[in-house]
Amino acid sequence: MGMVIDGKWIDDDEKFRNPEGGAFVRPDSIFRDWVTADGSSGFKAEPGRYHLFLAPNCPWAHRTQLFRRLKGLEDVISVTLSDIPRVTSWAYTEGIGRDLEPIDGKFELHQAYISAVPDYSGRVTVPTLWDKKEWTLVNNESADIIRMLNTEFNEWGDTSLDFYPEDLRPEIDRINEIIYANVNNGVYRTGFAKSQEAYETGFNNLFNCLDDMDDLLGDRRYLCGDRVTEADWRFYVTLVRFDAAYYGNFKCNRQHIYEYHNLSNYLRELYQTPGIAEITDIEGIKNGYYRIGAVNPSGIVPIGPGDLHLTDAHDRDRLPKAA
Ligand SMILES: N[C@@H](CCC(=O)N[C@@H](CS)C(=O)NCC(=O)O)C(=O)O
Q1: In the chain, where does the domain assigned CATH 3.40.30.10 lie?
Q2: Class of the domain covering 3-151
Q3: Which CATH class is domain 166-280+310-318?
Q4: How many Å lie between the centroid of ligand 1 and the Cα of residue 123?
Q5: pTM, entire model
Q6: Is 127 near ligand 1, meaning CB less than 6 Å away?
Q7: How confident is the model over 168-220, as pLDDT tens digits?
Q8: Ligand 1 in reach of 248 Cβ (< 6 A)
Q9: Is the dihedral of CA 17, 23, 26, 28 positive or negative?
């Protein structure tokens, strides 16, 4: 995959990543500054000041893209989606100015990390939240970024939507933890396992959790009750990739999401939320995942699975939804 060590891109990063017993370990994000409405953190929410570097196939990046759209912040925060295949880090035909412009036709995301911290050592990941005023990297953890988008930009965003309401926080946190470990990151633990045992553990945890969520959604419209919350959108990004990518490429093949009654209807309702289908790029998802050399050396992208039935009618109106 490659990473930056002492301010230089290196391709062979095997010894810097750290697999335990064949299990895939996702390192913690390093940049954790916070944009705040009042600027007390040093990063004040302002229109036109921040930029998000994203990639179409990445579920963590997708979370932030969803929140930007749902909260009506598209004119407030700019975005670029990786649109050329990676040779080193995530690559873009367009830059954002100054030293973050294409070199030989290609802007590569590690340029931003090294611009912010010249002797940076670590991974180069999407999403990356960049401050165009201070010209530095603010945060590269999607869980933080969606919380910022949910509240800190409310002066310009849709204040009627709160995906992390005070009264539901304990339940949202509880569900997030279960779904992150077993599903969001669980598909990676399954797909990137380097031993049979690690694969089987990841696989069983994943499907046990999906079974539980299918049951839960039998009488709850959304994961935490009758309101859509952050927990649902965090779940959505994995569910919508599942049949197109994880089922085949990550060997998560006990069953498809479309074979789960409640999960498939729930997924369709979220997909059909206004504005969401347009920023859910199934072809981009397939292309991105099947080009991960570590799991698919040939890089061949399958033709199937065909219609995922995301636009079919759903039956979720049978369950109550908060006004
Ligand atoms: N915890 C991070 C994870 C981000 C992440 O791992 N992104 C992947 C793309 S799906 C990436 O950029 N990987 C590149 C690498 O690991 O070098 C978040 O949620 O933002």
Answers
A1: 3-151
A2: alpha beta
A3: mainly alpha
A4: 8
A5: 0.96
A6: yes
A7: 999 999 999 999 999 999 999 999 999 999 999 999 999 999 999 999 999 99
A8: no
A9: negative
